[in-house]
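User: Okay, second chain of the day. Same drill as before: sequence in, structure tokens out.
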Amino acid sequence: MILKFEQKKPGRIRQTVHPIDIEIDGSPSTVAELIDATVRSCVAIFNLKACSAPSSDRMDEDSTHAPVSEKQIDDFAETGRVAFGIVYNGKMADPDKAVVNALQSYEDGLYRIFLNGNPLGELETKIKLTEGDCLTVVRLTLLAGRLW
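Assistant: Same drill. Structure tokens below.
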């Protein structure tokens, strides 16, 4: 099943949210199953990048990655970091640990999920997904400051 996953485009000046397609296995029926499926899909994409990362002794010979354009460099510069989409350490992520972490983070209230603009509730909440539904994940952060 392919879902639209709204992702914040990085940048300090023109921060926008644009949807990307994400493919998940099956049709989740609860919030917990949705988190499990999306995390496993994202970990698979990450691990694919980690497998294709050039080894340190062949870094200069690698020609599988396209050069970065001036516009991409300008966009990266707005965020304060120029990255090339390569996982340099080559370590694979463990999908089971990632799912456990994501579920615990959701229970702790570190992020919220919206399905077609409607907030999802507890992990056991039943949901009905259809092809092309839009998921929005909002990371909640605490503001640090002084009280006086």
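Residues 31-51 form the longest helix (21 residues).

User: Thanks, on to the next one.
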